[in-house]
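pasting for ref
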Amino acid sequence: MTVIGTGTTGTGTAADVAATAPAGATLVVGARRHLEAARLPAGVERIVLGPLAPALDGIERHLGSPEHQDRQDRKVTVLASGDPGFFGIVRALGARFGPEALDVRPSSPSIAVAFARLGLSWDDAVVVSAHGRDPRTAVNVCRAHPKTAVLTGPGAGPAELGAALARTGIERTLVVASALGTADETVERVSPADAAVRDWTGTGVSVVLCLDEARVLSPVQRIIAGPPPAPSGWALPEEAFGYRDSMITKFEVRALALSRLAPRTGDLVWDIGAGSGSVAVECARFGAAAVAVEQTPDGIERIRANAAAHGVDVQIVHGAAPTVLSQLPDPDAVFIGGGGRDLPAIVGACARRARRTVVVTLAAVDRVGDVRAALSAAGLEPDGLLLQSSRLAPLPGGVTRLAANNPVFVLWATRPGTEGAIL
């Protein structure tokens, strides 16, 4: 079975395919535009790629058909765009027929070509596929990272990405690359808001680059491609953030909360009653998209300053939960700090929306039962502990004592079936 990548560098014409494909193919599989470009002989069987499973079944039937019992007489050619081993059909073909059955002949990945058109390196880009997938992961990656490439698909193209990003207030530029390698090729810079109202039907969009133009030229020499590695330090000391009085989640509590939130690239995390925004900032440092909800004006400014100081993007929502939560997309994980009479209602509203996890910290034992009940009522499985810690503190004479922090309840709850889920 020969798998040919076509199209992104001007290849994919009838002559190119004829020169590359093995003579005497008995079955050719590909998108309609690839089959038309190949101008195949009338007698060659064709499968137009749509849903993948029927195409794989058709290949298997062809290879096992009585008229092709002699293995040398069974030649399948699969036409795909760019590099079919990069988010492409090679994975499915290898899983069904075995890698040893494949002769893969790639063209340049559309992402590489799109960045080349801009004169940009892409070893520091985060690549995400929205083709045939819910675009929420792609949107979250675009929110959190300054250089993202999105492989698009129906329902997950420039308009959908633009509409979601325009609501965040985070500065981004979309570069829409259409019909790469053809006479109709276009590479166009647009704002998310402009992309949202455009009709991209029939333009042949294959990849959208989402860029923070101020950070697109990284001066750092990369060793490992893709997003930056996880931060070398986390559960940062309180001194790493600006905060008012003692209104910050202590680093011991933050360490446990982060371990339960498990923020990662592609996730969306809410930090409710964010205060200094320390939890949101730390989640963003792990590559997650973060939203900080805070109702005090001075808190808003502190969160903005803390995010900038740590070089991350945090969407800041000025208002009180649960009222303002209706304007936000569903989170993967939620952190809720503080207390107040509305805490059970806030926890319940967040727990109903959370896809994976909710973490709540509180000082008052009286509220533990109500919070656990709210988590359970939303279908999550609650757990928790009382965290008591004492820090080393100096005494006169060069000796050390233990200085006790106030005990804090850390409660968390997980939606059944989401443990260990992958993107």
